[in-house]
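[SOLVED] Need 3D model of a two-part complex

Original post:
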Amino acid sequence: MNMEKGSSVRQKQIFYVFVLFFLLCAIAITAVYSVSIGQVSIPFQQSMQIVLHTITNGHLGSLDQVESDSYTNIIMQVRMPRVVFALLIGMGLSLCGVVMQAIVQNPLADPYILGISSGGSLGATFAILVGFGSGTVLAQFGVAFGAFAGAMATSILVLVLSSIGGKVTSIKLVLSGVVIGALCSSLSSLVIFFANDAEGIKSVTFWTMGSLASSSWSKVPIMAIVVLAGCFLFLFQHRVLNTMLLGDESAITLGINLSVFRKLYMIIAALITGTMVAYSGMIGFVGLIIPHICRGLFGSDHKRLMPASLLFGGLFLMWADVLSRVLVANVELPIGILTSVIGCPLFIYMIVKKGYNFGG
Amino acid sequence: MQLIVESLETKLGKKEIVKNISLLVENQKFVGVVGPNGCGKSTMLKSIYKSLPTHKGTVVLGDMDVLKTSQKKISQKLGVVGQFNEMYFDLTVEQMVLLGRTPHKKLLEVDNQADIDIVENALKQTNLLDYKDRSYLSLSGGEKQRTILARTIAQQPQFMILDEPTNHLDIRYQLEILQCVKKLNIGILAALHDLETAAQYCDYLYAMKDGRIYTSGTPEEVLTPETISELYQIKCETYKNPITNQLGFVYQI
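Solution:
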């Protein structure tokens, strides 16, 4: 009896490691596939040779069979940054999703729950329709700056509002987020109402649907540092994150003051989300759904949940990006649409097939 | 390890809930706190384990001044089994009990074989070995409470505070929990609502009313018809149960 149980635990562990390995391989293959499609279609074989050759600095792979010299340029300079962006943002979104759900102890939370989405939107709307005035330093950063500033300002406001009267509790956080979010949304509507700028309003709409089109190598370092540092940090926070699930009362008796950790984690998550929102707009659903899918597969223990969510989130957004480019010929769909369209059926499948009951 | 509480006062908002309470739990004694709902039992216990801020007084556990010590240090010595709380995310029983090791771990430290053994042992003491891989949320009330007790045992505390640990539980589970706690042989301070169990398990009793200690002593000294009538505003007779030789109670309004 005991031996059987031992082996079932071991089987689960082997399954988990296998899934992580599979996700890593899938990410690598998807990356190569993703860079080979586009206006100029480059055969998969050649893409692989080019990527291998460039990454290993010529030690592996050869460029002998590559048909055109411009291929290397297209892949490494034009398409690769976008793939890296998709991976990083996918990881970042699911990371913040897992963390936010733990912070507010609510399965409905996503990275944008603290009013970050409406704050970011307000900032971006302001930047697009009103602008910071030409010639100022702010004008150079434009929409990205507006979005980041808006996102950070709202999350700080939410944090301050929920700290009133002592402890930061999950209910106060959610309510403050909703209230500040509503305020920002109506301010955005006000700006749009008074703006006499059809073109601008269209860009605002596009912005709220998310896009990876602005990716470039020059933006990758900031994104990579912020997201990877966040991932690294939270990979080792599983003990506190698990304790968060128990609630304030139990956490205190285990020596952990949740109020402090909530604030700290929220600031870090807001920074990551703000940076992502600045560069890629609002990409919904990933941060909500990926953590739930991974919980359904591996349970709520953050030690397992975190690595799986990171990899799965990255892979998911890479595929959403691929589909956004190939589904309609010569048109690039906003990626935010795709994430919901692929995400929903996946989630429904989880509920129906696995009997998953939303973490509870 | 002994617990000394002196002139403890706690306010919730502006209202004084705990008024100048002093009590003593001697090493390895099982001490109970009885009193009607709203008399301040829970608030007092929460003040002792620092879940609520205290207004005045001192709490000393062994040689540690609890009110001036960090939460982590306290939790290495003091375990708490609280009343039920809601959870929206699921963990397995084993993962839940493993969280009891948290106070003894540095922030980045991982669980080792010693921790697994301690958890295994705690599960054994609470009769939960077969439930190891079960999901916590699928358990019955009694099983949940035993899991929380197992988690507190895995904490390896030298003193334990229990806040109505047997609330909502059927008789068998009540007895199992208290039996298990008694066997730990550490100092216990427990709020209890059932007078018969209090009489049966406690070495010493404090009776609370309106935020103050009304009286204290051995169960026989405290649980007299007069005191019980005064505490709970009922008519009460006590008798010696001929089968168990324990104190028995008959109540009437």
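Edit: Chain A touches chain B through 32 residues (CB under 8 Å).
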